[in-house]
Sequence to fold (99 residues):
Amino acid sequence: MISALNTLASALPAISAYTANTAHNIVNVETEGFKKNQGSFVSNNLGGSIAFKAQEVNEGVNLSEEIVNLKQAEINYKAVAKALASIDETERRVLNTFG
Fold:
């Protein structure tokens, strides 16, 4: 259970970093010579944590792709927040039952 909580808790800042990276690309969509940053989520299997790692790629920004990335980040964030809320509610019920 602790590992799942670590994974979920670390996902929130990773999703925030993903969103910031996407916003950076969108802001620079018309900047001449700008090369977008592209990244991926990486997992630390030992601690169950998730991080977002970005790197510059040799291509311009596709605005449609970046809008899809923002929507995906929103969906991911809501899913993680809902999972954390569900765990919190389950713990509360267990404590009320046995506490």
Summary: The mean pLDDT is 91. The longest strand covers residues 37-44. The radius of gyration is 17 Å. Strands lie at 37-44, 49-56.
